[in-house]
User: Fold these one by one.
Assistant:
Number 1:
Amino acid sequence: MPPAMQPVPCKPLFFDLALNHLQFPDVSGEMGARAAAAAAPAAAGQKGAQAAAQPGGLTGFVKGLWGWGGK
Amino acid sequence: MASKKKEGSNAALTGLYAELNTLGQADEYEKIIKISNKILSMDKTALKALQYKIISLINLGRFDEALKQMSNSAKLASSLHFEKAYCLYRLNKNQEALEAISQAPEQTLQLKELKAQLFYKLDRFQESHQTYREVIKNTDDDFNDERMANLAAVLAQLAMTNQPVPDAS
């Protein structure tokens, strides 16, 4: 006969948020003028996100970076 | 002649960086590793290329390789504290990861976030709680819900191990 069932605490959910902080460095300075201009949508997207009035500084920046990845 | 050659390699480098930029936006990690290797073979001091490579290796789950790469170019990689600590964290070398973090010249919020996760893994829930409070207070991004879930996990562990919740200080 199996022993009676007993409740046991479950392991709480825990997210790895540090992974989000790993982002590629900005190489627009290394790309040279022509390539940088060609990649302007990307760079502009990023700078735009930084410069444009956006709610909550860092949030906008992070969103900008990801919108950037979507292009 | 020499200067012409240098010019040529500079042009090649700018092209390779442009490729890195494009590939980075597309999360093409395997290709990024190849391009980074090319850049590093031409310029051994290319920290950003190395960083692209390390981050790609991490995203591919190749933490051992990333660490090896950092120790192979130890001097160049000496500023990549977060990357190193993150690899150690994922390899469950939690104590070493904490040491890597403590070597950073500045405890940024990113490092503190990783530290809070490390304290949790090491069952140091009071320190994890304290670190999370600080991170949450100073962060404004899209992950606050997840962060609160982590804080709840810390509180649950504190309760389960009969430890008091540390005072806010």
Note: The mean pLDDT of chain B is 94.
Number 2:
Amino acid sequence: MASEESLEESKKKVYRKEQALKRTAESLEDDEEIELPRKRYYRQRAHSNPFSDHELIYPAKPEDMKWSMLYGGSNEAPTVADVGCGFGGLLVSLSPALPKERILGIEIRVQVTQYVLDRIHALRKQNQGKEVDYTNIACLRGNAMKFLPNFFGKGQLKKVFFCFPDPHFKLRKHKARIISPTLLSEYAYCLRPGGIVYTITDVKDLHDWMRSHLEAHPLFERLSSEEEESDECVKIMTTATEEGKKVARNGGSKYIACFRRTENPK
Amino acid sequence: MVNSVAISGDILYAAQGSKVYKILYDKNSSEIFKILLNKEISLTHLGLSEDCKYLIGIGDVDKTVIVVDAETLEVAYTHKFPKRPSAWSTCKGNLVVADKFGDVFSVKLTEPLSDEARKNMEPILGHVSMILDVVATENNVLTSDRDEHIRVCEYPNSFVIERFLLGSRSYIAHLGVSGNYLLSAGGDPVIYSWNWKTGKEISNFNLREYLKLDNDDIDVISVSVTEKEAWVAVQGQPKVIKFTFPELEIVDAFETPHIINSLANNGTDCFAACPKGLIKVCKSASLSPYLELDGPEDILSQTHLRKAPRN
């Protein structure tokens, strides 16, 4: 059994390595057909400890970031962030919806990040020259709870998404939640006044937690239900993510709350 | 082990093991250092309140910050916090305390909270990583953490982050503020000076090159900043380096007879706590007045701040 497992594991490793090689070695002019990566080779446990020192690569400051390496073309910085982007479903759907914005997914799990990179690479290749060519989405491995200000300067972001975050049910783990009173100040720093925080979860307790902390924070105000309902990004967020689809398949509920970054008090 | 020193005029305070000493410095006397008082209190991170009425330090046990009458060395107030404090600062009668959990709390210096109020204490700001130093000024709080960040928040509206001062390559254990200028130092071989009000880096200085050390693992153990000067001590080095501030040009390097744990200065003279006593930093090591403070050996628990090197 053990050897079978390791055989399976090594198959996955070989596959992921091949995909990564394709991504780096191939130039986009190459004629060879490219297939979308298969998710089963990239599975990784859902939880990650945000407090530990992962071997992360991050710029010392936002000005050091070479965005052109991720997006190609200019060095223009992203204005939309998907924190904990998972397998990248939201990124892919947001790409045509926000064609003028550069969108960045941040994911802490190595293999999941690799999947998204391979997915974006394949999509770009398949859609070269088309109207939607996926050059406005990118993904990197990172710990957003610790290093968001390394990537994003003051007021750089217009939108931040938190889709189906890890609920961290245990009380002593609540500090590990991606929304907390003290972290909200960091998100407010990266967001420009008028920018929007989107949250969605299938866990009622977590929804209440996120909503109540955002409501209590002096720099956020909730969008009206009309605004939430008419926001195209809310529709996409509800239907496009892998988690969102899973919840729908299982007949679960989805709880949504969106907040606007207000001006700093004088 | 003498872990910490503080000064107000010509009165020095030193914390050693379970004792705190009050010492008179008189360079014209035959007895340059005269011990005036000592009391059994276990403290680290000594410093004085703005009005110099209180000596403040982090308690050895029970997650406390202890406020001591600077005259009598009697404990005046004991502030208890949810987690072990790692640094503190005072401003306008407030005591601002950071902890290893990454949270910062603000309380009134001379009004300890009731048990009930303490349970409901909310942090005024927080980092996801360990906070190593905090400085409160009239309108701002500056914090530094193990992940190379210096954060400048408004105060008391500490939910408004004004800016980050970024570029350090290791943990930042020490912040020294004078007016608009800030000295930052820690595990980076380079120390930095900033205008923290604009976010502009003013200058930096490479200690590793200057000390001709081979490895990158330089730990600055203490800094002491005045309006025009900065004094810096590096772990394991019997030496205090004096800079102009904020330009960070070397003025002098003073050899000391022992390695240094902590620095303090009163605007004219610089004093250093070394493992077994107190030194007045002087031109030459042999001329430096030295006061031995004998006591039981205690081992300071060292927190591991440096991250594992990347492969």
Note: The two ends of chain A are 65 Å apart (CA to CA).
